[in-house]
Known about the structure:
Blueprint: H1 10-16, E1 33-36, E2 42-44, H2 46-60, E3 68-72, H3 75-88, E4 91-94, E5 115-118, H4 125-133, E6 137-142, E7 153-156, H5 162-179, H6 192-196
Parallel strand pairs: 3-4, 3-5, 5-6, 6-7
Antiparallel strand pairs: 1-2
Amino acid sequence: MTDNKTLVPAEDYLTAGVHIGTKYKNGYSEKYIQKARADGLKIIDTEIIDAKLKVLINFLSKYEPSDFVIMGRRENAKKPLQVFSKLVGCDVFTGRYLPGKLTNAALDDFKEYKVVIVCDPLTDKNILNEAYETGTFTVGFCDTNNKTNKLDLVVPINNKGKKSLGLALMLLAKHYLANKGILKESDFKYTIEDFADE
């Protein structure tokens, strides 16, 4: 993966809608917003999205799959996370998160991770709060309405769209596996449809 070219053509980012934010912005997201459309929706800069995805890929590639977990409570995150987990071998949580998995050593399913990634800091706040409390490195896919104060790394992106999350997780899987020497980029045959379609 070279840093001087984008992970995918800009057109692919636009087709997947990674740049479409919400009508709301806050002080956390303002620096990632390129403009506002006539209908009020904020547009996230795709160059920043690409750059932040590269940072996440390179960072995560320092860890083994057992070292990190990705949480996505929204329905749009379920399939992308399941495919990602199958390819990479890391833990994922979809649906409701039961508190204590990261903090209560008495629980049977207690586990310590080095990195916790959330698909939405708002809906995935329980695991994010536990990761923050325990000093675990936190990463979040953040839309224009998300607070980022408990995150160590922010990836600004449309986290409400299935294709948007699907593309992000597809790129993360492809380059993570390549960086680990598990699969050459040219041998990665999965598409956004594998991650995002029904």
